[in-house]
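Technical note accompanying the year-one report. For the benefit of new consortium partners, we illustrate the data format agreed upon in the data management plan: each record pairs a sequence with a structure-token string. No post-processing was applied to the example shown here.
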Amino acid sequence: MTQSRRTFFQTMLAASVAPLVVPSRVLGREGAVAPNSRINVAMIGMGRQAFYANLPWFLWSQDVQVVAVCDADAWRADLARQTAEASYANAIASGSYKGCAVYRDYREVLARKDVDAVMVSTPDHWHAAIAIAAAQAGKDVALEKPISLCVKEGRAISDAVKKYNCVLRTDTEVRACKPFHQLCQAVRNGCIGQVLRVVASVPKEAAPLAQVPGVMAVPPELDYELWLGPAPLQFYTEPRVHYRHAGLDYSGKGPGWMQIRDYSLGMILNWGAHILDISQWALNTERSGPVEVEGRGRFPENNLWNVLQQFEIRYRYASGVELHYSNAGEPRVRVEGTEGWIEYTWFKENSFQASSPALLKWKPGPSDLTLPCVGEKEDFVSCVRSRKEPIIPAEIGHRTATMAQIGHIAVQLGKRLRWDPAAETFVGCEAANALLNRPHREPYAVPGC
């Protein structure tokens, strides 16, 4: 289901500004949602994830209207505006639509009274600041995973959501993946007995740059100061940010910021936001966490791209269950119990396997636990209307990110650490606790950090 949906949306945006075919019901015809009843959504961050996975869905949905797009790169923002307006124009008789505003600064978006919700698809280092500001402004938030780069940021986000009573949905489609959903339901209902161990893995990183790039002139369309935001001041070079006028689909190379620790922790957190979420969901620890962590890994030396190239991390829970996490090359979760095992490798055919074929077909009965299974954006829109908590709210998104973040700290320090998931601190290790936060540059500092 997830693969077919990804293929569908990728096809829709294969040509960057080609009109997207939007049903007439989007504009209130055919007895569907009328314009004044739809949710006004602003898109903040218009990189490849926005074009590939986020903007298409919101343009397709009859329940929302994309009223604004925002990016520090004016070329990307204007391309998003063209895409949105061509899409809506294609759905009305006049064939013309001019109703999508363009912004560089997210604060101007949040100041609009008519914006109900925002979809945040910026680089990771901006997630916390924008999400908290949106909550303060009374906006609901669909926030790309991972929701934060450090534990203190994640806690600040979750606290802000509660304080301002907004809806925040961690934007990952992983729980709508049928095999993962089946795996978690089977484990949570005791079908493999008492859980003993979880083995989880994610893909490997891109290779570091062959040589360290030098200073380059900032492109005129990019507000580089704003792009850096809360991150440290650094000289501009294209491999630090994103490749100019390119990279808005997944057919080419990814943006350089995903390989730099000032803006991303790499695969340990990027794909970990998917795989560790499923691991925690299966263990029913999604609002808590382990009590011990140790790890080892390898960072590149003297390279602009400096995220972990290799890692192996072991977590231990209070129950005695262990979670072994690595970048072995495939996005995989395997759960082992006293009466069997079950595993799935994401996007790989015939990889849903178990110790017994019956496990793959098992369905919960009337007295069994049934876990929800719905797409991330459908869930978000539904909760914006109902004011109910999403399937992956801020607290769960934060706890998932925390798993990767404390694992990253354990690798940096090269020692076994005790973790208190209630206090969200390391026990007896100030060096580790010092890494729970990161510097935030004014005037973009993250409140609560």
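Partners are asked to follow this layout when depositing records. The radius of gyration is 22 Å.
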